[in-house]
Amino acid sequence: MEGGERHDHIASVKWWNGQKAGVSTRSQMVDFINGGQKVYVTDGQNMVYVGVVKATPSYIRTHADGKWTDNLLALPRF
C-alpha cells in the first residue's frame, strides 16, 4: 500500500499463475489486464475477477456481481 490524498492505494500485488509466483506494480497489473489477460482472486471456493478502473492513474479493483468491490483491500499485506 502507498498513501493517497484521502486513502491508501495498492502499490504492488503478489500473484501466482499455477506454475510460478511474482510481484507486479499496480501499473504493470493494469497493463496486463488491459492487454486482455484475465485476473482473479480466490479463497479456494469463490472466485472474483479483477478489473481496471479508468481513472488518473488507472487502478485495479475487484468486480463481483456486476459492481465494483473492495475485496483486494481485505487481502493480507506483504
Structure description:
Helices cover 12% and strands 38% of the residues. The protein has one helix and six strands; from the N terminus they run E-E-H-E-E-E-E. The strands form two sheets. Strands 3-4-5-6 form a four-stranded antiparallel β-sheet.
Principal-axes geometry comes out as globular
Class per helix and strand makeup? mainly beta
Mean of the pLDDT scores? 83
Counting DSSP H or I runs of 4 or more residues, the number of helices is 1
Helix content: 10-25%
Which properties best describe this structure?
78 residues; mainly beta; two-stranded antiparallel ribbon; 1 helix; 6 strands
Topology:
Blueprint: E1 12-16, E2 21-25, H1 26-34, E3 39-42, E4 47-53, E5 59-64, E6 67-69
Q: Would you summarize the structure shown here?
A:
The chain is mainly beta and 78 residues long. Helix content is 12%, strand content 38%.
